[in-house]
């Protein structure tokens, strides 16, 4: 029986967390997580992701990007 998806979240394949994470540098892990977000997170099996998209990150509908920490946008 499939598990229910948690709203506003991205499921990451176990292999990324269990095997790859220990061997990847911080920058490499960010790239892998970005690709996972752009594919699995958006319900796709694949996606054409440009280098500029990766460099700029995911832009939210309000034009903001990144995460919010301690009330500041970073």
How much strand content do the residues show?
5-15%
Q: Please list the strands of the largest sheet in the order they lie side by side.
A: 1-2
SSE run: HHHEE
Distance between the termini: 39 Å
Rg, please?
Answer: 14 Å
Number of strands: 2
User: Could you tell me the mean pLDDT?
Assistant: 77
Count every helix, treating DSSP H or I runs of 4 or more residues as helices: 3
Report the structural category.
mainly alpha
What is the share of helical residues?
A: 40-55%
Largest β-sheet summary: 2 strands, antiparallel
- Please mark out the parts with pLDDT under 50 across 5 or more consecutive residues, or reply none: 67-74
The total domain count is 1
The shape, in one word, is: globular
Supply database-style keywords.
74 residues, two-stranded antiparallel sheet, mainly alpha, 5% strand, single chain, disordered C terminus, globular, 3 helices
Describe this structure in words.
With 74 residues, the protein is mainly alpha-helical. The protein has one domain (14-73). The protein has 3 helices and 2 strands. The protein has helices at 14-23, 26-39, 51-56; strands at residues 68-69, 72-73. A two-stranded antiparallel ribbon has the order 1-2. The radius of gyration is 14 Å and the shape is globular.
Task: Summarize the helices and strands and which ones pair or pack.
Layout: H1 14-23, H2 26-39, H3 51-56, E1 68-69, E2 72-73
At a glance:
This protein is 41% helix and 5% strand. The chain is mainly alpha-helical.
